[in-house]
Specification:
mainly alpha; 538 residues; 5% strand; disordered N terminus; five-stranded mixed beta sheet; two-stranded antiparallel ribbon; single chain; 62% helix
Length: 538
């Protein structure tokens, strides 16, 4: 026998099969990345990128916008800032966003590939799962959660959670705890709730087995040690704070600033309906396929754990009428975040099981679900492309002139970038500005501090209370929280207290001319949307 002759397997050598498998994997990964890009590949900054990356830039360069309340406040997601913020030392914020997106999206794509292969051992199903998952999250969420989007801490955290779910389906619990520990280090809430849901899954799938893998192990505590990189900074937010200040901050956060994500009473009725439909359909399909596909059992347990966490959150949501202070503190933990992400994922996996079902009727139902998801994702993607401006500067997100045409929104964005560029070139690096209420990207474009910003809410109790005081003062309720006052005594006070010399105004809100010295635009300059005025001195 010739030892040099390659071993044959069918018509191809094993080496050829490995190379072919590698190319299939790369092709599947590439198509997943293309799908994600088509859905979320808007120009930076996306909704939360200006919020996260300015903080990450400050982490690596503390002198940058050091006079800004949000930037200078205690940093909660230090692991994320450390890993994803260093490019800001060498490239722009926009380039940093694209680098971060590529890394985070790659984790999601590879995680989905691993999960689908371990459960079904078939190629290309991850594309169907991704499509249905994206549609399910956007159109079936309860509290406004999303997974596929711009770079922020939870996106790579969910990628690591997918790695954990893939290993969970093969009962590799030692790896599960390490992956979830890493996810918690990036985003303590997404990762932390996933640990609880994983324990529920362990209880459902392992507890009664004779060969069960123990829950309490060195791997679990090892994952906990990794999670400390996210937990310690989160705990530090409340250290050294009085009980009264902590309670006041919690009330601001849960009942005012983030109530649309946290407070069940603030959720719209159709949000409950759509998420309930998602849960019921998932439960119905799970009854058929979980007993057949053993790899789905752990994911089903994880999903019911997430739903259980949300159920406890609903009970907490009843407390404000009886114990408002306690409820405010408990509601801060985003009880509905995991169910918004995981129930659609479970449904997506079940749709994949439908498609490969040998029964033609069930397979057709799966294909119909896939077609519906494709239509919904296409509509969302087309709407973003039609708008043609980054989501963070779109009129839809900012709630101002939402019916404006594409051309109008483009012009408003160009005017906004122009006034930010003027602020950057015409002021020292430590300058502080008053900015329009309906914006969240001034620091991104101008690289200058601002007195207060609705989007950029600090996390620590002291800074959060100061943020609330400033916001109510700068945008008083008597003016509808939409504009800065032009009373000379208040403007002089802002100049003394905050060191602010100029304010940028939206001329659609304030009108064309204010009784103040206009700094921009002047002769030879054009900006139909924004103007800059100097604050009066004592």
């Amino acid at each position: 026998m010739n030892d040099d002759k390659p071993e044959q397997t069918g018509l191809k050598t094993r080496g050829e099969l490995r190379r072919s498998s590698r190319w299939y994997t790369i092709a599947e990964f590439s198509l997943l990345m293309l799908l994600i890009f088509a859905y979320a590949g808007d120009a930076p900054p996306m909704v939360n990128e200006a919020h996260y990356l300015v903080k990450a830039k400050s982490f690596w360069d503390p002198s940058w916008c050091a006079n800004d309340l949000f930037v200078a406040s205690t940093k909660a997601h230090t692991t994320f800032y450390a890993i994803f913020g260093w490019p800001t030392l060498f490239v722009s914020l926009s380039t940093t966003a694209w680098i971060g997106r590529f890394v985070a999206w790659s984790l999601l794509a590879i995680g989905l590939q691993r999960l689908c292969w371990t459960v079904f051992e078939r190629r290309w199903l991850s594309l169907i799962v991704a499509l249905v998952w994206i549609a399910g999250v956007e159109y079936g969420n309860l509290a406004g959660e999303w997974v596929v989007g711009g770079i922020e801490a939870k996106v790579p955290a969910y990628g690591l959670i997918l790695f954990a779910l893939a290993d969970m389906s093969k009962r590799r619990w030692n790896r599960v705890w390490l992956w979830l520990g890493a996810a918690s280090a990036l985003h303590v809430l997404s990762g932390g709730w996933s640990v609880i849901a994983a324990m529920v899954s362990w209880a459902i799938t392992e507890r009664k087995r004779e060969d069960r893998i123990p829950l309490l192990s060195g791997w679990l505590f090892g994952g906990g040690a990794i999670a400390l990189f996210g937990l310690v900074p989160a705990v530090a937010l409340t250290m050294g704070t009085s009980a009264e200040a902590s309670t006041a901050a919690a009330r601001i956060y849960s009942y005012y600033r983030i109530r649309h994500h946290l407070l069940p009473a603030d959720f719209l009725p159709h949000w409950y309906l759509r998420h309930a439909v998602l849960i019921v359909v998932t439960w119905f399909l799970a009854r058929r396929y979980v007993p057949i596909e053993t790899g789905l059992r752990s994911l089903a347990g994880f999903t019911w754990g997430a739903v259980g966490i949300a159920g406890i959150g609903m009970i907490v949501g009843l407390l404000p009428a009886f114990a408002p202070d306690l409820a405010a503190k408990l509601l801060r933990y985003y009880w509905f975040r995991l169910t918004d992400a995981v129930v659609p994922l479970m449904l997506a996996m079940l749709v994949a099981a439908l498609i490969i079902d040998r029964a033609r009727t069930w397979s057709r139902i799966g294909l119909a679900c896939c077609a519906l998801a494709l239509m919904l994702v296409s509509v969302s993607s087309f709407d973003r492309m039609r708008r043609g401006v980054p989501p963070s500067v779109s009129n839809v997100l900012l709630g101002r002139d939402m019916g404006a045409s594409r051309q109008v929104q483009h012009q408003v964005m160009k005017d906004w970038i122009a006034v930010c560029r003027w602020a950057r070139l015409s002021s020292p690096q430590d300058a502080v500005f008053l900015t329009p209420r309906h914006q969240q990207t001034f620091k991104w474009y101008a690289h200058r501090a601002e007195v207060v910003n609705w989007k950029d809410v600090p996390q620590d109790a002291e800074s959060l209370s100061e943020w609330n005081r400033r916001f109510l003062e700068i945008y008083p309720q008597r003016l509808g929280f939409v504009r800065v006052t032009i009373r000379y005594d208040k403007l002089r006070e802002y100049r003394r207290e905050h060191g602010v010399r100029a304010m940028i105004v939206d001329r659609r809100v304030t009108g064309e001319n204010l009784p103040l010295v206009r700094l921009y635009p002047t002769a030879g300059e054009a900006n139909a949307t924004y103007a800059v005025y100097e604050l009066p001195q004592d």
